[in-house]
C-alpha cells in the first residue's frame, strides 16, 4: 500500500479474509489516515471484505460503477481486495495499491472472462450514484482511453430522482454565493461527454460535473472522508456519528475550518440537504500533513423529492438533539458550539450570516437557472416556513 510513491503498509489476503499492517512509523511521515495516526500498530482485519478504511475507497455494492467494473472483471460480485488491486493506480486521494504477487495464482481473485465492456474503467469513486472520472479536452469531457487519469467527476441523471444534476448545480451555486467553498462546477449535455459506455445518458440530457479536489496539475492530493476517519463501514455511514462529533474532530484537527463547517450545516438545513452522511464530509491534506476540510460537494435538496424517506425532513444525523430540519433553531447551534468547546457567539454569527445570505440570493438562483418547477415550489415554501429562516432570515 502506497501514499503517492511512499510505501506505508501491507494489505494481505487469505481465503476471503484480509488484514492491513501500517508500517510508516518515521517521525516525518505524511498522514495516510487519522486512524493510523491515533493507533498505528493495531492490525486492521476484515472477513469477506477489506478493513473499513479501504472499503470506503471503493464504489458501494449496488452502484452502477461497481457493476461496470464487475463486468470488466467477469464477476458479478468481486471481492473488495480484487477491486483495490484492479483499480489501485487511480483510487481517491493519493492512495496507490501495488500487488507484490500475481492475483491470478489465487483462484477466487483471478479475472474471469470479461463481459462486453465498450470502455475500460480503471478508476474508483466512492458512493452509490452513477459517476465517472473524466478529463476536460476541447469543448467537452472525455473518459480517458486508459480508463484512468480523470480530474473531473461527472454525475449522470438518476432515473429515480428527476433533475438531480441541475439540483446539485443550483445548490452548490447558491452555496458559493453565500461564501461556501465550492470547486469548479458545470452542467453538460450528454453530447458533450465522450467515451462513456453506451446507453447511460441521452445526448440532450444534462449531467453534473465537478472538478476533483484530490487532483491538481502538480499531482494527487491526499484525502479521506469521515467514514474513513471514523473507520466506519460504508453501509454504516448513517450511524455512529453526530454533527457535533464531526465539529469536535474539526476543532482538534483544523479549527480554522469550523466556520466553514457551520456555514455548510446552516445551508444543509435551509436547502433540505438531508443526506449529509459521513461520506459527504472529507478531510484533505494539501501539504501531506495538515488536515483541512475539503470543498463542499453533494449538496442536493433531496427534501424536494416525494420519497417517503425524505418526507420527514430528517437529517442524516442529529444536530445536538434535533434531527428534523424544519425544527432546527439557533438553540441547536448554540449547543453544538458548547459541545465542540468553541465560541458560541462566533457560531451563531456564522449561522445568521449564512441564513440571511441564502434567503437574499435565492431569487438570483431560481431566476438564473432553468430549475424544475417542483424544486422552485419546494424551496419557496421551505423559505417561508423553516424555523431557522424565521429566526435569522
From TrEMBL:
Domain HipA N-terminal subdomain: 2-97
GO molecular function: protein serine/threonine kinase activity
Start and end residues of each HipA-like C-terminal domain: 123-362
GO cellular component, one term: cytosol
Keyword check for Manganese: no
Top-level taxon in the UniProt lineage: Bacteria
Keywords: Kinase, Transferase
Family indicated by similarity: Belongs to the HipA Ser/Thr kinase family.
Name of the protein described by the UniProt record: Type II toxin-antitoxin system HipA family toxin
Source organism of the structure: Kribbella speibonae
Amino acid at each position: 500500500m502506497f501514499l503517492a510513491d511512499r510505501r506505508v503498509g501491507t494489505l494481505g489476503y487469505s481465503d476471503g479474509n484480509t488484514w492491513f499492517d501500517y508500517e510508516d512509523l518515521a517521525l516525518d511521515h505524511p498522514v495516510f489516515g487519522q486512524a493510523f495516526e491515533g493507533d498505528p500498530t493495531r492490525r486492521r482485519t476484515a472477513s469477506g471484505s477489506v478493513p473499513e478504511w479501504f472499503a470506503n475507497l471503493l464504489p458501494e455494492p449496488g452502484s452502477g460503477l461497481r457493476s461496470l467494473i464487475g463486468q470488466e472483471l467477469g464477476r458479478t460480485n468481486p471481492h473488495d481486495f480484487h477491486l483495490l488491486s484492479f483499480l489501485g493506480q487511480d483510487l481517491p486521494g493519493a492512495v496507490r495499491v501495488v500487488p507484490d504477487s500475481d492475483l491470478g495464482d489465487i483462484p477466487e481473485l483471478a479475472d474471469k472472462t470479461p463481459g462486453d465492456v465498450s470502455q475500460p474503467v480503471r478508476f474508483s469513486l466512492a458512493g452509490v450514484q452513477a459517476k465517472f472520472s473524466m478529463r476536460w479536452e476541447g469543448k467537452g469531457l472525455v473518459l480517458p482511453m486508459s480508463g484512468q487519469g480523470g480530474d473531473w467527476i461527472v454525475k449522470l441523471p438518476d432515473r429515480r430522482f428527476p433533475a438531480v444534476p441541475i439540483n446539485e448545480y443550483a445548490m452548490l451555486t447558491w452555496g458559493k454565493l453565500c461564501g461556501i467553498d465550492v470547486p469548479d462546477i458545470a452542467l453538460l449535455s450528454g453530447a458533450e461527454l465522450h467515451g462513456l459506455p453506451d446507453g447511460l445518458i441521452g445526448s440532450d440530457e444534462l449531467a453534473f460535473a465537478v472538478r476533483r479536489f484530490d487532483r491538481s496539475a502538480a499531482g494527487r492530493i491526499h484525502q479521506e472522508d469521515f467514514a474513513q476517519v471514523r473507520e466506519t463501514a460504508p453501509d454504516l455511514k448513517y450511524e455512529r456519528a453526530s454533527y457535533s462529533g464531526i465539529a469536535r474532530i474539526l476543532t482538534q484537527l483544523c479549527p480554522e475550518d469550523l466556520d466553514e463547517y457551520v456555514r455548510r450545516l446552516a445551508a444543509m438545513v435551509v436547502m433540505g440537504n438531508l443526506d449529509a452522511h459521513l461520506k459527504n464530509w472529507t478531510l484533505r491534506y494539501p501539504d501531506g500533513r495538515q488536515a483541512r476540510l475539503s470543498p463542499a460537494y453533494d449538496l442536493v435538496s433531496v427534501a424536494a423529492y416525494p420519497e417517503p424517506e425524505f418526507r420527514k425532513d430528517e437529517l442524516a444525523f442529529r444536530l445536538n438533539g434535533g434531527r428534523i430540519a424544519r425544527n432546527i433553531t439557533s438553540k441547536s447551534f448554540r449547543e453544538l458550539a458548547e459541545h465542540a468547546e468553541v465560541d458560541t457567539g462566533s457560531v451563531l454569527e456564522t449561522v445568521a450570516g449564512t441564513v440571511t445570505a441564502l434567503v437574499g440570493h435565492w431569487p438570483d438562483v431560481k431566476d438564473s437557472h432553468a430549475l424544475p418547477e417542483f424544486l422552485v415550489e419546494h424551496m419557496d415554501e421551505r423559505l417561508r416556513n423553516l424555523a431557522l429562516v424565521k429566526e435569522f432570515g
